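=== RUN LOG ===
request id: a7f3
mode: sequence -> structure
chains: 1
length: 71
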Amino acid sequence: AVLMQEHGVDVDAALDLAIELYARDLVHFEALLARARAHGVSAATDAVLRGLEEWVHGNRAWTGSCGRYQR
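=== RESULT ===
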């Protein structure tokens, strides 16, 4: 509803926009991970980064298989 109101679009266009935003943010997140690791991080920080990475990708996998988010 928020994207529909902010962008003046119907539900299908809002869903497409949400997918675009998610994809863009995922690419940005992965680039930040790579940048952080390229600069070198401690083992503890790398463990946190791995945890975040697994959380994000686990959510993506769940969303793709959950009937709630199917068209």
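=== NOTES ===
The longest helix spans residues 11-38.
The chain has a mean pLDDT of 91.
=== END ===
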